[in-house]
């Protein structure tokens, strides 16, 4: 079998040496033109004059001037409700085969986002490119013979009229190429189990039957799965069960908050590769080992635009002003937060996905995710993004030698004074006052706006430490375990009251 691994690795290396990449900027221009041409006879394309946009001297500029920004509600009410009702050629030719259900991190009500056959093909193509990029990570040939554990949502999709619907990880797993099925674990049968606890228990029972070389999934749920496997087999680390585990492909959220807790259940280092697969498409993946940044998929079914992340542009509900400045890939700068706007082959147009990103390398189109537009804590001018919060918490982990994989925070008014009230998920026993003081100092170092706010209207920081399992139980009670479910990092006051009541009830 070592020979097979060598053959596969050489084939990947050869493919990468043959395939030449168009510059990201030029690729984006071509993608936009292709999408506009394909959709010009849809209801959306006719309404906004795609034919005339294509005739413009500057197609990118004409596109941005002709079409407003759309958040999910606007896209759904104005256009996708007709798609859901079964009408054809609304925002993309024909009808979608699937709808991706996404409750995101902000509520119980699922969004229903069209997933067309063109998007399935785009996701598959991007996945193949990501596999090809593994040749950059100096992995041994035998890695390419090992099996891959993909822990997503159930592939037992729901029928709703003429469509199938489920979370995007379940949709993509149900469409894996035939040649990959021999590598894919836990396999079709187990992946169809809808109950997450039952699925993980079954994985634990079958774990020693598989030779897992790579894991793929959201860090919080992946960690719980590995702990269940370790517990079931009464061993110390996951490598006692899967000794050839070498790669973890993270997705959905940043891996850094989970890095320390992951190391506790490993007996040797593994290669961590970040990806950015959302319900709306496969947006980016880490292409090389000497960075934690991800390369935008600029040549395959998605057109990107970028709005500078300025408080004046952001509305109360996390959407953006229609007159906000917008930039193309050729105009962005490094180390500046941008609101990400996408147009896709699923018929999302100038769509606010809800994430903020920053470029670490413009020429390579490499980014990091810095937060969510709705998870921006700006009460009394503190201007804290999730990225700044994560940085401060990594400082606490180092200072106290602890692990803080989960957190949530809200701005709360107490006796006419504003406080940032934090709940930190940690198993450590450290005085809350010490954590509060240390976190306050770390945030002052991470963000000058926060430091100014603390000297004026922001009275202080209050920290409550709880077990990380509290966060997972909250998600289970409010949404669903596993899959694409992620914890909301910043809560509004009303939701925070519900959270505190839930914590006290445990």
Automatic annotation (TrEMBL):
GO molecular function, one term: acid-amino acid ligase activity
GO (cellular component) term, any one: cytoplasm
Taxonomy, superkingdom: Bacteria
Domain annotation GH3 C-terminal: ranges: 389-494
A Pfam match: GH3
Residues in GH3 middle domain copies: 297-362
The name this protein goes by in its record: GH3 auxin-responsive promoter
């Amino acid at each position: 079998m070592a020979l097979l691994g060598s053959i596969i690795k050489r084939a990947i290396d050869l493919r990468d040496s043959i395939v030449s990449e168009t510059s990201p900027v030029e690729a984006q221009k071509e993608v936009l033109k292709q999408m506009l041409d394909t959709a010009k006879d849809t209801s959306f394309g006719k309404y906004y004059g795609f034919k005339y946009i294509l005739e413009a001297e500057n197609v990118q500029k004409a596109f941005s001037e002709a079409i407003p920004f759309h958040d999910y509600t606007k896209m759904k009410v104005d256009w996708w409700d007709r798609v859901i009702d079964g009408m054809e050629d609304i925002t993309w030719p024909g009808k979608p085969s699937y709808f991706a259900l996404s409750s995101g991190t902000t509520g119980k009500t699922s969004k229903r986002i069209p997933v067309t056959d063109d998007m399935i093909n785009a996701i598959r193509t991007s996945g193949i490119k990501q596999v090809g990029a593994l040749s950059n990570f100096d992995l041994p040939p035998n890695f390419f013979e090992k099996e891959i554990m993909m822990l997503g949502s159930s592939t037992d999709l729901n029928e709703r009229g003429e469509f199938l619907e489920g979370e995007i990880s379940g949709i993509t797993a149900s469409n894996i190429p035939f040649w990959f099925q021999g590598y894919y674990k836990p396999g079709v049968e187990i992946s169809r189990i809808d109950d997450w606890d039952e699925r993980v228990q079954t994985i634990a029972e079958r774990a020693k039957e598989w030779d897992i070389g790579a894991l793929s999934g959201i860090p919080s749920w992946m960690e719980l799965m590995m702990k269940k496997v370790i517990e079931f087999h009464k061993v110390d680390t996951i490598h006692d069960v899967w000794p050839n585990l070498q790669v973890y492909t993270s997705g959905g959220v940043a891996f850094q908050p989970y890095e320390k807790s992951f190391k506790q259940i490993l007996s040797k280092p593994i290669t961590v590769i970040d990806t950015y697969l959302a319900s709306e498409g496969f947006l980016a993946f880490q292409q090389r080992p000497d960075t934690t940044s991800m390369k935008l998929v600029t040549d395959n079914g998605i057109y990107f635009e970028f709005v500078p992340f300025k408080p004046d542009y952001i509305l109360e509900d996390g959407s953006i002003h229609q007159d906000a400045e917008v930039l193309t890939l050729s105009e962005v700068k490094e180390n500046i937060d941008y609101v990400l706007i996408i147009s896709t082959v699923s018929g999302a147009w100038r769509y606010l996905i809800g994430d903020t990103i920053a470029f670490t390398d413009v020429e390579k189109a490499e980014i990091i995710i810095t937060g969510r537009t709705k998870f921006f804590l700006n009460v009394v001018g503190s201007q804290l993004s999730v990225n700044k919060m994560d940085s401060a918490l990594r400082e606490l982990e180092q200072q106290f030698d602890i692990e803080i994989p989960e957190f949530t925070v809200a701005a709360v008014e107490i006796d006419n004074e504003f406080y940032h009230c934090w709940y930190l998920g940690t198993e450590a026993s450290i005085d809350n006052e010490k954590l509060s003081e240390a976190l306050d100092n770390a945030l002052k170092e991470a963000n000058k706006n926060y430091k100014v706010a603390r000297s004026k209207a922001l009275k202080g920081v209050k920290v409550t430490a709880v077990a990380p399992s509290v966060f997972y139980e909250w998600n289970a009670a409010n949404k669903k375990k596993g899959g694409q479910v992620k914890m909301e990092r910043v809560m509004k006051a009303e939701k925070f009251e519900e959270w505190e009541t839930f914590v006290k009830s445990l």
